[in-house]
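Standup notes
- DV: blocked on the single-chain target, sequence here:
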Amino acid sequence: MSKRTSRGIGLTFLALGLAVLLLAHWPVPANAQSTHVSVLRIDGAIDPISARYLSRAIGKATVDGAVLVILELDTPGGRLDSTRDMVEAILGSRVPLAVYVSPSGAQAASAGTFIAAAANFAVMAPATNIGAASPISSSGEDLPETLARKVNEDTKAFIRGIAEERDRNAAALEDTVTQALSYSASEAVELGVVDLIATDVTDLLNQLDGRTAETAAGPVVLSTAGVPLRGIEKTLVESFLTVIADPNIAFLLLSIGSLALMAELFSPGVFGPGVVGVLALLLAF
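- DV (later): unblocked, structure below
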């Protein structure tokens, strides 16, 4: 490969990297304020991108004058630090928020349990489950004994605090941490872990109509029956980061970056491999 070709490849990757950075800060057009319900969906592991998406969606819903935010959730769990960020965003929301575990067959496992419990209204579709929130390592293994004790105590206090804030069954929620218990939708309603079961979003809105939600701005009486829905989708950058946040993709980028930098060291002045390597490593980290 000639130096000119390598330089061209390097410049192409550099341009792509700059484009991603520009898109990350590109202003999103605001919709005109009108009575509506904002809907977003998180389907997959909880990570920093999920936390960013939720925080942005709540901010947008507030600015656009939404009467309610619905987070449709289906997750096997995820990072505890990102979960804390999401719980903080939910508890600090000035707009009422409902977490809807859906569709049928979905789950709010592990981190999803904390997120659902933190909502003003925790709602589940039929044939869904919630729980199994015991902390584990990032590799999926049990934590060492001393560390596990510290993390478990911290996590138990975290979920008890959420339960007290939202007037939920603290003991049943704590059991999802200490005993890794999981509940079906009907069991969760019976135990006071969640508020209700809804077959779809329309059913959810009809059941919430007239209820009062305690928000950071004070109590709000919901009027949601027949209110139109407005989706809040992930931005191009958030969708891109969601893909590369996959551990397998991150490892691949790390490998490519390392090999490209080694190629640059053995062929100084080529330029292309160095740029590719730096960008791949930045994306990986």
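- Follow-up: DSSP finds eleven helices and eleven strands in the chain.
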